[in-house]
Amino acid sequence: MLSQTDQPAPEPVQAGTVHGFSVAFSFPVSFTRKLWDPANRLFVDTVRRLEPGRRHRVLVAIDDHVVSANLQLVADIAAYFEAHAEHLALVGQPILVSGGEAAKNDLFHPINLLKQMNDAGMDRQSFVAVIGGGAVLDLVSFAAAICHRGIRTIRVPTTVLSQADSGVAVKNSVNMFGKKNFAGTFLPPFAVLNDFDFLETLDRRERRAGISEAIKVSLLRDPALFEYIEAHAGNLVAGDPEILARVVQRSAELHLAHICGNGDPFELGSARPLDFGHWAAHKLESMTAHSLRHGEAVAIGMALDVLYSVRMGFLARAEADRILRLLEAVGFRLWDDALARAEADGGLTLLAGLREFREHLGGELHITMLRTIGRSFEVTAMEESAIVASLYELAAREQDPRDIPSRAATVE
Ligand SMILES: NC(=O)c1ccc[n+]([C@@H]2O[C@H](COP(=O)([O-])OP(=O)(O)OC[C@H]3O[C@@H](n4cnc5c(N)ncnc54)[C@H](O)[C@@H]3O)[C@@H](O)[C@H]2O)c1
Ligand SMILES: [Zn+2]
Fold first, then answer.
1. CB 74 within 8 A of CB 67
2. Closest ligand 1 atom, CA of 173?
3. Separation of CA 157 and ligand 1 centre (Å)
4. Does ligand 1 come within 6 angstroms of the Cβ of 101?
């Protein structure tokens, strides 16, 4: 028998007129250490946040490189669930997911994850907890987002880049047809839990790569963060965990403030104000078949757009020098030979990145430029001759000047 409810019948609507509704999303983003110490209640209290009286089923998926860097992790998670068995039930053994970008390129992975979710009898009240770098977060969050049209997902980012930037994101994806992030959804996570201890098993290069996103967001939004990174560049290079944690946390807060406060969390418009330096970065990543890490490519992309900003009269030369010096002090190389690559017709291959960026945005080019450290604005066209001149400057900084193809056009 159907139960009776006291819900009033909705007002009849008229076809042909415009109707709508809005849905509010909220999710906590927390920072901690020793997430899986049974004495740390963050995970269990996060899962119980909306329904404290219930025993919650949680399927855990982990980046396999995180496990190989910490062989105790799977046992620690099992012990944590054991200690909090009143509120948490671990669904099966944690699933190990192949870490790194390659896993986003192969549809075997999301399908296998969906199969495991089906085998485990996951329902819309169950949780998926995903522990890993940005690639594994994207991949597992995508599978969870399409399973039953969306299972509650707790993201536990484990790289500098994912804690400082992508981990707080409301989107997920896999790559298809040779295009990055071609298939994906917007679905805010249930929670994001950042455990700084994970950063200690990253190699030096990986740890540094994510710092470029913190520098990026400081350039766009927070001069005080820029000055802090400037003052502590040596500590960051030396791997000081406390300084790194402060930079990562502030960067995550700034990215989060943007998602929650900019009025377009699901990116319906064309503007991408946080994607400073990214048009060139995305192209460089694919031109180098990902031998350049995303963060490394972003450092080069920012250096290029900083020099372009000077050339166009947007930014003072002294500010630009300060920015480039900081990127170099943190250890970024601001040149890659792919920057000078030419197409068969003699045009600069990099410039295809502008066209691809415009296509991704939906037809209209929006490129972020700097006015000063902490303040940005957007342009809707870029002059090829000024890009090429900026590339010459970057090449000269490398003390390895070279020929760079040029056709001196404006790309809009
Ligand atoms: N969803 C979004 O909004 C968003 C935003 C920006 C970037 N991203 C995505 O993030 C991905 C890049 O993320 P990333 O920079 O974290 O790289 P990554 O996920 O490729 O991780 C880098 C490497 O480090 C390993 N690793 C992860 N954590 C580790 C740890 N604690 N110890 C040792 N090794 C560890 C990984 O297995 C991988 O081999 C890209 O796919 C990018 O598209 C997504
Ligand atoms: Zn980025």
1. yes
2. 1
3. 8
4. yes
What spacing in Å lies between the alpha carbon of 133 and ligand 1's midpoint?
Answer: 3
206 Cβ inside 6 Å of ligand 1:
yes
Rounded to whole angstroms, the Cα distance separating 88 from 57 reads 6
| Tens digits of residue pLDDT in 134-169 | 999 999 999 999 999 999 999 999 999 999 998 888
Quick one: tokens of 334?
């601001």
Give the pLDDT of residue 126.
Answer: 97
CA nearest to 285, candidates 276, 295, 297: 297
Cα 295 off chain centre by: 10
The DSSP annotation for 174-200 comes to EEETTEEEEEEEE---SEEEEEGGGGG
239-242 LR contacts (CB < 8 Å, sep 24+): 239/204, 239/207, 241/196, 241/199, 241/200
135: Cβ below 6 Å to ligand 1?
yes
CA–CA separation, 339 vs 394, rounded Å? 10
- CA–centroid distance, 281 to ligand 2, in Å, is 8
Place of tokens 């509650």: 152
**What is the position in ligand 1's atom list of the atom closest to the CA of 70?**
32
Distance 276 CA to ligand 2 centre (A): 8
The count of other CB atoms within 10 Å of the CB of residue 159 is 30
Q: Is 158 in the pocket of ligand 1 (CB under 6 A)?
A: yes
The finding on whether 97 has its CB within 6 A of some atom of ligand 1 is no
Q: Measured between alpha carbons, how far is 342 from 348 in angstroms, rounded to an integer? A: 5
- What token pair was written down for 315? 């930014």
Distance, in Å, from the CA atom of 138 to the CA atom of 184, rounded to the nearest integer, reads 9
- Residue type present at position 325: R
Q: Whose CA is nearest to atom 6 of ligand 1?
A: 166
162 CB under 6 A from ligand 1?
yes
Q: Provide the 3-class DSSP secondary structure of residue 129.
A: strand
CA atoms within 13 A on the CB side of 294: 20
The string of DSSP codes covering 279-299 is HHHHHHHHHTTT-S-HHHHHH
pLDDT (tens digit per residue) in 91-117: 999 999 999 998 999 999 999 999 999
| Whole-number Å distance between alpha carbons of 287 and 352 | 11
Strand ranges inside 231-357, DSSP E: none
